[in-house]
TrEMBL record, chain A:
Taxonomic superkingdom: Eukaryota
Protein name per Swiss-Prot or TrEMBL: Cytochrome b-c1 complex subunit 7
Topology within the bilayer: Peripheral membrane protein
Location(s), subcellular: Mitochondrion inner membrane
TrEMBL record, chain B:
This protein's GO CC annotations: membrane; mitochondrion
This protein's record includes keyword Glycoprotein: no
Main location: mitochondrion
Domain of life: Eukaryota
Keyword annotations from UniProtKB, A to Z: Mitochondrion, Transit peptide
Record domain Peptidase M16 N-terminal: where: 47-188
Name of the protein in its database record: Cytochrome b-c1 complex subunit 2, mitochondrial
Organism field: Agrilus planipennis (Emerald ash borer)
Keyword Transit peptide listed: yes
GO MF, one annotated term: metal ion binding
Locations listed in the record: Mitochondrion
Domain Peptidase M16 C-terminal span(s) in chain numbering: 196-371
């Protein structure tokens, strides 16, 4: 929550865009949620999203790997823009983490 | 806020005290002449409750949403709903529901039949109080998460596999008698529908049928005011319309060849409706006149009509009368289990017995006594009391206690039962059979 708060309050949208463009993955046509580290929470979240979204994600990842092998990047007009980068997985990962925390809290007390 | 809290504790103290001071005098199963109070909330939800001083309390939420309300697209939805009881809801996860209910030692069950889906919580008084918020969530605030539903499809498959043939014969009898519509719908999901019921379908069915005017809250072991408060807090949606497709009895037959040595045959004719309750009781007596389970161990040759007509000629057959009462129709018939070679004889004998009106007053007297016994012994358990009260309140505006029901049984005249037997005899026959069908005749081959 705090990071989001800082981002919203103190990071201008221009700065946010600058940081996003600096990260580089957008040049391969990836989105933020495509580069999440696949730990158990993310794996569980991936199980919960519709097949269509999974297919799109897999396509983007395949394309990025192919580009990386060929030491290329996409033409500039196909780069992901920050406005188009929808967080399709993060809310579900947060839900999974909440559920895990609930379980862990219960195990502590009982 | 503070005043409310103290009020609640005072209320809580009363029944607990009653119980502890009366523990030496009141039997564990409570008193039999509990008097049920029934009232209706503004949104149309009915509330029925009784205090029988038993240490166990039960609360149940029922909706008229059984399998008869399914249509062709949603066949099997009630089976999935039954499986989905206890999954995550709007405000509680599956994990927290399960753990909180288990931790206090309560038990939550969901059962469905052709008319009603009911959720029941039972436990000691304290446990039920503590677990009731989770119970309310399970029954009224469902969200059907697709991944949780798909995780549970194996349970559907298991339930389909472990259905006994007796049950399947009865299911087939409904299918034959009501022609695949309304009451003819199976209680179980079809094999081809497994995994095809989406969470949107479930949500739509839930919104359509889990509404206040089709619901009842029943409780045993609570003050009526407490139950009213609980029911008001449920905030169940008011409904727009109550369009229930009427089911009409039509004769038919269904056969399922499964091989093996045994044949299970369910034969039925049109029986009595659930309401007025007198009609259901008359057919209940008639059921005992025809004969149910033997009252003495291994006492197959009894004095029932079926024993006279069928078992005396085919001793290897196990026969038992069945009586199912629904809000607008009913089935009365016989369930037969017999070695395949004798099935044909048994079926024609049962068909003959079902169209005979050869019933004496002594038969009726025995039937009455047997029904009284089985009714009272089933109402000894609070679990059956809460179910019974709920169903009575759901379909009519009064709810009889055990004493009231036994008085009603005593008040039925032999003539009523003989009239009912005549009505059954004149009705058309339906027949459903499963197992080895080598000798089972088709419906039009039966001569009677």
């Amino acid at each position: 929550m705090s990071l989001g708060f800082v981002q919203r309050r103190f990071m201008s949208s221009a700065l946010q865009k600058f940081a996003y463009n600096l990260s580089g993955f957008h040049k391969y046509g990836l989105m933020r949620d495509d580069v999440l580290f696949e730990n158990d929470d993310v794996k569980e979240a991936l199980r919960r999203i519709p097949q269509k979204v999974i297919d799109e994600r897999n396509y983007r990842m395949l394309r990025a790997m192919q580009l990386s092998l060929q030491k290329e990047i996409l033409p500039k007009e196909q780069w992901t823009k920050l406005e188009e980068d929808k967080l399709y997985l993060t809310p579900i990962v947060e839900q999974v983490i909440k559920e895990r925390n609930e379980r862990e809290e219960w195990e502590k007390d009982h | 806020m503070a005043s409310n809290l103290s009020k609640a504790t005072v209320l809580r103290a009363v029944p607990v005290r009653c119980f502890s001071s009366g523990a030496n005098h009141i039997p564990v199963s409570g008193v039999p002449n509990y008097c049920a109070e029934i009232s209706k909330l503004q949104n149309g939800l009915k509330v029925v409750s009784t205090e029988n001083c038993s240490p166990l309390a039960r609360i149940s939420i029922l909706f008229k949403a059984g399998s008869r309300f399914e249509n062709y697209e949603t066949l099997g939805v009630t089976h999935v709903l039954r499986i989905a009881a206890g999954l995550s809801t709007q405000n509680a996860t599956q994990f927290s529901i399960m753990r909180h209910i288990q931790q206090v030692g309560a038990s939550l069950t969901c059962s469905t039949d052709r008319e009603v889906i009911s959720y029941t919580l039972e436990g000691t008084r304290e446990a039920v109080k503590e677990a009731s918020p989770f119970f309310a969530e399970v029954a009224t605030k469902q969200v059907f998460r697709p991944w949780e539903i798909s995780d549970n499809t194996d349970r559907l498959k298991l339930e389909l596999k472990i259905r006994p043939y007796e049950l399947r014969a009865l299911d087939l009898l409904h299918k034959a008698a009501y022609r695949d519509r309304g009451l003819g719908n199976s209680l179980f999901i079809g094999k081809t529908k497994i995994g095809k019921i989406s969470s949107e379908t479930l949500q739509h069915y839930f919104c359509q049928h889990f509404v206040a005017s089709k619901g009842t809250v029943a409780a045993v072991g609570f003050e009526h005011n407490d139950v009213l408060k609980f029911a008001e807090k449920l905030k169940i949606r008011e409904s727009c319309d109550e369009n229930c497709m009427k089911s009409t009895y039509t004769s038919g037959e269904a056969r399922l060849e499964k091989g093996g040595n045994l044949t299970y045959i369910a034969m039925g004719k049109e029986g009595g409706r659930l309401i007025p309750s007198n009609e259901a009781l008359v057919y209940g007596i008639l059921q005992h006149v025809y004969g149910t389970k033997p009252g003495v161990p291994y006492g197959a040759g009894g004095c029932s009509v079926l024993a006279r007509c069928v078992t005396s000629n085919v001793p290897s057959a196990s026969v038992q009368a069945i009586n199912a009462n629904y809000s607008d129709s009913g089935l009365f018939g016989v369930l037969v289990c017999v070695p395949a070679a004798n099935a044909g004889t048994a079926v024609s004998l049962v068909a003959k017995a079902l169209s005979s009106t050869d019933i004496t007053e002594a038969d009726v007297k025995r039937g009455k006594a047997q029904l009284m016994r089985s009714m009272l012994s089933s109402l000894e358990s609070g679990a059956n009391i809460v179910e019974n009260l709920g169903i009575q309140a759901l379909f009519s505006d009064n709810a009889l206690d055990a004493v009231g029901i036994s008085n009603a049984i005593a008040g039925i005249s032999p003539n009523d039962v003989i009239q009912a037997a005549r009505k059954v005899a004149s009705s058309k026959l339906s027949i459903a059979s499963i197992g080895n069908l080598k000798t089972v005749p088709f419906l039009d081959e039966l001569t009677c």
